[in-house]
Write a structure and sequence with these properties.
It comes from Drechslerella dactyloides (Nematode-trapping fungus). This protein is α/β, with parallel strands linked by helices. It has one domain: Glucose Oxidase, domain 1. 20% of the residues lie in helices and 22% in strands. The chain has eight helices and 13 strands. The chain has helices at residues 2-9, 86-89, 115-119, 132-139, 163-167, 178-186, 212-221, 232-236; strands at residues 11-15, 34-39, 55-59, 67-69, 106-114, 129-130, 149-153, 175-176, 191-194, 224-227, 241-246, 256-258, 262-266. The strands form three sheets. The protein has a nine-stranded mixed sheet with strand order 1-13-11-5-7-9-10-4-12. It has a two-stranded antiparallel sheet with strand order 2-3. Strand 9, helix 7 and strand 10 form a beta-alpha-beta unit. Helix 4 (132-139) crosses helix 6.
């Protein structure tokens, strides 16, 4: 216990997740988050001593709020990562392979690439495509090692409390372009994360729903994607390298999982 207290005094922990609450932003392709108290204090005194309890019921999609994508999340021409048949894989109502329960806990080095900071703005414009060149400029002299987690800040989470604005259906949403996804994959990272709803850039027009980075990272390189992160406090503290901690729920056969990722640095 004394060792734990010593460690806690010597580090600063950044919570990189958003809060889960009714009315929060959720992709139109997901079941929105809903929570209600199912049993209230005072509904029933089960012990006869005055003691009571309360319970809640939660309904949500597995890609709502801060979450990580499992490898079964995307496919192409009937195949998942490794050439697995996507139709056969989900017979029976859950995926037999690559479900959220297969995502190993992460305790590794993390790197923040703060795109608005090097551009001198608070947040990126709607539909701004983050290219390979943008990522390289934001990286500067910092190195990315194999197995690292790379987090990309756009500043878009500043709009999170306004679900319509955050989803950007009428404006587009900044995000990583194909060249940026290829650059990340070439570094052999373990996961990539961002503060937007879909990681990929969303631009108005016929390509609005295209997600090339999802294919590049998940489908072809087995690199997990973390979405709807809150990177504001980390950026304000000008933290670029940190210890990264994340663990998904063991949701057997699910295509993703809610998470509460942490960044840890020396105090």
């Amino acid at each position: 216990m004394e060792i734990l207290k010593s460690i806690q005094k010597g580090v600063r922990v950044f919570d990189l997740s958003v809060s889960l609450q009714n009315g929060m932003a959720a992709s139109l392709s997901n079941v929105p988050y809903s929570m209600a108290v199912f049993r209230r204090h005072g509904d029933r005194d089960r012990t006869g001593t005055g003691g009571t309890s309360a319970n809640s019921i939660i309904v949500t999609g597995d890609h709502v709020g801060t979450h990580i994508d499992a490898l079964c999340h995307v496919g192409y021409k009937g195949k998942l990562y490794g050439g697995v048949d996507s139709t056969e894989a989900c017979l029976g109502g859950r995926f037999k392979v690559y479900g959220a329960e297969t995502i190993d806990p992460m305790f590794c080095r993390g790197v923040l690439l703060d795109i608005p900071a090097f551009k001198g703005v608070d947040r990126l414009e709607p539909g701004y495509a983050i290219t390979k060149d943008d990522l390289e400029e934001a990286l500067g002299d910092t190195k990315i090692n194999r197995g690292d987690v790379v987090l990309i800040r756009t500043g878009w989470v500043q709009l999170y409390d306004d679900a319509e604005a955050y989803l950007g259906q009428a404006t587009g949403v900044p995000g990583v372009a194909q060249s940026g996804g290829e650059w990340l994959a070439a570094h052999g990272i373990r996961a990539a994360g961002a503060d937007t709803i879909a990681f990929d850039v969303e631009q108005l027009g016929p390509d609005h729903r295209q997600r090339p980075c999802h294919g590049i990272l998940l489908l072809f390189n087995a690199i997990h994607i973390i979405e709807v992160m809150n990177l504001e406090e980390l950026a304000q503290a000008k933290v670029k390298e940190f210890a990264f901690v994340l663990s998904s729920l063991k949701l057997v056969g699910a295509t993703g999982s809610p998470v509460r990722p942490l960044a840890i640095v020396d105090a």
